[in-house]
From TrEMBL, chains A, B:
PANTHER family for this protein: HISTIDINE BIOSYNTHESIS TRIFUNCTIONAL PROTEIN, HISTIDINOL DEHYDROGENASE HDH
Residues involved in substrate binding: S214, Q236, H239, H305, D338, E392, H397
Sites where the protein binds NAD(+): Y106, Q168, N191
Organism, scientific name: Isachenkonia alkalipeptolytica
Residues where Zn(2+) binds: Q236, H239, D338, H397
Catalytic activity from the UniProt record: L-histidinol + 2 NAD(+) + H2O = L-histidine + 2 NADH + 3 H(+)
Uppermost EC category: oxidoreductase
Record protein name field: Histidinol dehydrogenase
SUPFAM superfamilies to which the protein is assigned, alphabetical: ALDH-like
GO annotation, biological process: L-histidine biosynthetic process
Pathway field: Amino-acid biosynthesis; L-histidine biosynthesis; L-histidine from 5-phospho-alpha-D-ribose 1-diphosphate: step 9/9
Amino acid sequence: MALFTEEIKDSVGEIERMVQSRGDAALMALTEKFDGVKLESLKVSEEAMDEAFVNVSTDLLIALEKAKENIEKYHRKQLRESFFTREENGGMLGQMITPLKRVGLYVPGGTAAYPSSVLMNGIPAALAGVKEIVLISPPQQDGKIHPGVLVAAKLIGITEVYTLGGAQGIFAMTYGTESIPKVDKIVGPGNVYVTLAKKMVYGQVDIDMIAGPSEILIIADKDQNPAFIAADLLSQAEHDPLASAILITPSKALGEAVLKELEQQQQNLQRKDITQTALENQGKIIITETLEEAFHLSNRFAPEHLELLVEDPMSHLPKVENAGCVFLGPYSPEPLGDYYAGTNHTLPTSGSAKYFSPLSVDDFIKNTSLVYYTKEGLQRARKDIELLADYEGLEAHKKAVSLRFEEDTEDRKI
Amino acid sequence: MALFTEEIKDSVGEIERMVQSRGDAALMALTEKFDGVKLESLKVSEEAMDEAFVNVSTDLLIALEKAKENIEKYHRKQLRESFFTREENGGMLGQMITPLKRVGLYVPGGTAAYPSSVLMNGIPAALAGVKEIVLISPPQQDGKIHPGVLVAAKLIGITEVYTLGGAQGIFAMTYGTESIPKVDKIVGPGNVYVTLAKKMVYGQVDIDMIAGPSEILIIADKDQNPAFIAADLLSQAEHDPLASAILITPSKALGEAVLKELEQQQQNLQRKDITQTALENQGKIIITETLEEAFHLSNRFAPEHLELLVEDPMSHLPKVENAGCVFLGPYSPEPLGDYYAGTNHTLPTSGSAKYFSPLSVDDFIKNTSLVYYTKEGLQRARKDIELLADYEGLEAHKKAVSLRFEEDTEDRKI
């Protein structure tokens, strides 16, 4: 979980107050302060969106299109139907599914660009039927949002985009400003300031989840390729010095081979500083007696990403109780899920896979229950309802039913 | 939203520390302090559960059984299947649904009893397949949980019950004590101490929602029965001096008739103090130009309970964007939903119907994504994945894929 120092809390609290009282002016000032950019306007024009296509390669476009296709195909299977039931007692019940009206996507920026984040957050929202999807992302040095982000947004039909980041972006979307109407839900990961801001506004808006540091847990048997395992551990370790990378195996020899591989593979990594810190502090190689024990430990940890590099991995699936996403076999490296396969890469961290799920279409809809009884139906039900209301000491609840059948009240009209 | 004064926060913080450090001993001490009862044991024995049946009427049992049947029937329609997909590229994806392992139900107690709360929280959990459902409820003066609560628990198969309430109950279920193993999720409403405790532990466990005061909003046309409307407004007002009760109608005459009815009907209510305060502070009768406008206002308020007392209510449903539960027509009084019809009575309040849903089976399961690619499948995908990882500056992500096809690493074994 992100560490919110007093200093960070004060800073974010101040930003909140500024945005609430000064709206767009505060956003401009804060963007200049934190991003070093003097914006002319917050909203990204259609021309600027189109221009971004010039600044990305055709290969990237093809890759994004393919990823989009896969992500849509998978998430489409999550769509649910509203339902109605006919009750024999003369009534009808229902569950009506409505997309959220307006959702804000936060896409981190700065030096790196995350078009995959746009796809993973935006596609389920679009499939759910959200009419107004807003995207905000901080500017680069040149004052513009990274072209890869703009291109991904355009690809999935997002046209309302603002050059805006940080806690100020979260508060703008929560409270609304002159330029930016407020939203009902905010999704997307960000730095510690963004994460704290999201936590603060939860309840006034909905949020996806408080993202903790990345985690990978690999269960492997002795027959696996240690180079693959090391590479996968490093792929998560490179995210964050706080990332966790764990191998659990009954084979001591495999554990030792992976250690060697880790050392070797890290030499050539640009982000060696980050991976080394992550592995030193949160890296583990655990040797168990049995494979069974490995699953037991994994369930207790409830990892964000779980790789099963074991013989016949499907047969072991019933043992998995808690994990965000499971990658089976030696050719399902975790980055496959991050970018391409179609499953969502926004996953529960910090043990919350015990009760939270990957981001899905469900995160962008809400249900409304329906109750429609006939007079006869209510008459048949009234004895039981009145008895229960009476038992719970709720007299007016009881009377709301009984009065509908009392001579002097049952037919009143103005 | 509940008001958490400094005093309440301090008190609950102290309770948390006591439970964390002294476990069962703290629970005993706090139950004596707050409930005035010296418990012999926390766990309710099977005999005590059975004994409760002697202390409730047969009629109540019949009513609870019927309500249970209706609630099960409705919630069963919410059950979802895990799915698997076959990808033409040589891969397989899936979404695996797993029930939460252990869930705690909080049932408020004291002078009143809420067997309906047991059913509404327990049945979706049981249908979802949660193996360990724990129920806690504070003792009455005689040291026992109210028999109606025990009976309802037994009816739906809950056997792990503890005589325990308040914030201490929430912390016991979150951290675990000698007697009470910790849970993954806590559901159920409670007083301001319980609500604050739930808010504090959210993230360490999941919770259902932070329940705000009850709300009813009635949209009515001129042909409706003002006695019905007044009775329904009062049925919510009786919950809480902070409850909201709103009528929106294009008919001034109806509004005036309802005002008269409210005055008259309140005379005879035991909970008159509560209803009067609620209506004074949060009661409204709004006269609009058109029915259309009424729906517009209702959507902005996003009520917990929405009653449509209008001609052909179904035809107006498409206008409803935000509401927890909609009651259609003159014979669907809100208490029908609270106790009997089958829909859940745990609903979003304080405007959160814009993005939250009624409690459902979905609240007791979690999804796990599955990814299983063949070597050929990954080979076909690798160019796109490596390009995307590279674009995002994640080198180790790229290498985790490419290394699987490099001569010196692709076939390594220990």
